[in-house]
Write a structure and sequence with these properties.
Length: 433
């Protein structure tokens, strides 16, 4: 049985028990969330050695890091180092988005290396194999696509992005309205090109029951991709994006009826004043299914600092109910990220997620900040390092900027505000003259 089916029967699986302990919540809360579809758990047992993972309502906001080769950079050793960097930085999952080299071998190596949940986008492999076999992405067959999905599930992939919601009607809408950036989803562009070339409906939508059968067999989470996510602020919340979301709402309910776990992916580039509405629409239309967002990036001109533009949007999105943040690195829109870019991207998204968790009342979030404030008040530097999201950097910066003051830092030196005023706040109040 899948996690959903066990939960509906009132059974507490090993994954439910593990996630409940990790989150500091009662097992019944997790079980009930899985049963109703507001929480998903990693259930593909073929990924041996991986920690169970939960994402959804009431849980800590999770962070994903993307890794993978490209046609220009095919060295898998480099990408495996990025897996290590992402996990060390605190990522809750990694996605292998490889498009260069032996994709089957690369995926298996990433699964072997990662002790956190692994996601993939199987259409990449199906499309690239079609190029090798028949010379073009648009010559991909329906069987090519589903064979790739099943291969990923069989290897142990816990969640797969599948672009099921884009249809010929959605394409008509974006043509009619006009877009600045058209389609920026790589998988979405492959499916779109295939539909337009062949004059046929999206096979992932048309043969959705076949997809559900694979996901059910391996208890793989379907991550319903947002092919028409806005790639710039000008395209945010347009007809095509909303039409796809409506289709995904239908597909969520069909997945639940089949006993399959599902989450929904979201935008994208979205201005600050539209983020809350985007999250609320998804939660309403998709009946509370977990929401996985890329950013959203709140400006198009943060190139080189897009981990910051994404973290700003991610914090607002998570505050309003997004459950899972896909990191964005400083190299977004420029090139393949380095190990340091991966680290910085994970940290920026973790900060965003934690800031939102404080507002959402996630257990332990506000308490951690209070403990940090108390450590600062007592000028306990080691405790501060332990509590911060990136202890390594905190210790590094303090070591690089030593102070001559016994307890202070090199910013204030001998004139630490908290140390100075504590001497007076602890004394009796003087008589007023």
């Amino acid at each position: 049985m899948t996690q959903v089916e066990m939960a509906r029967l009132g059974k507490v699986s090993e994954q439910v028990a593990f996630v409940a302990e990790a989150e500091g919540l009662e097992r019944e809360i997790i079980r009930a969330g899985v049963a109703e579809g507001t929480i998903v758990l990693s259930g593909n047992l073929a990924h041996r050695g991986a920690r169970p993972f939960g994402v959804g309502r009431g849980l800590r906001t999770k962070v994903n890091a993307n890794v993978g080769t490209s046609t220009d950079y095919r060295k898998i050793e480099v990408e495996l180092e990025k897996v290590d960097a992402a996990v060390a930085a605190g990522a809750d999952s990694v996605m292998d988005l490889s498009t260069g080299g032996d994709l089957d071998a690369i995926r298996k190596l990433v699964l072997d290396r990662s002790k956190v949940m692994v996601g993939t986008v199987p259409v990449y492999q199906a499309a690239l194999q079609a190029v090798g076999r028949r010379g073009s992405i648009v010559e991909m067959t329906v069987d090519d696509l589903f064979d790739a999905i099943e291969a990923h599930a069989r290897d142990g992939v816990e969640f797969a992005t599948v672009h099921c919601g884009i249809t010929l009607e959605g394409i008509r809408l974006i043509r009619q309205e006009g877009r600045v950036a058209d389609i920026v989803s790589r998988g979405g562009s492959f499916i779109t090109g295939w539909m337009l070339h062949n004059g046929r409906e999206n096979p992932l939508y048309q043969h959705y029951d076949r997809l559900l059968e694979i996901a059910h067999e391996y208890d793989m989470i379907l991550s319903l991709g947002d092919s028409l996510r806005p790639g710039c602020l000008a395209d945010a919340t347009d007809r095509g994006q909303i039409h796809e979301l409506l289709m995904l709402g239908e597909l969520v309910e069909r997945a639940w009826a089949a006993g399959v776990q599902v989450m929904v992916e979201g935008p994208g580039h979205v201005p600050l004043d539209q983020i809350a509405a985007n999250i609320q629409l998804q939660k309403r239309i998709c009946k509370g299914a977990p929401f996985y967002v890329l950013g959203p990036l709140v400006t198009d001109v943060g190139t080189g600092y897009d981990h910051i533009t994404a973290a700003i949007g991610g914090a607002i999105a998570a505050m309003h109910g997004a459950d899972f943040l896909c990191y964005v690195t400083p190299a977004e829109h420029l090139g393949l990220p380095s190990n340091q870019d991966v680290w910085d991207g994970v940290m920026a998204s973790r900060i965003a997620g934690h800031a939102a968790d404080i507002v959402k009342g996630v257990k332990g979030a506000r308490e951690r900040d209070l403990a940090m404030a108390q450590a600062r008040k007592s000028i306990d530097w080691e405790r501060q390092a332990e509590l911060c999201l990136d202890p390594r950097k905190a210790r590094q910066l303090r070591a690089e900027r030593p102070s001559t003051a016994v307890q202070g830092c090199s910013m204030c030196g001998d004139f630490c505000a908290m140390k100075f005023v504590s001497e007076y706040l602890g004394a009796p109040m003087p008589a007023i003259c």
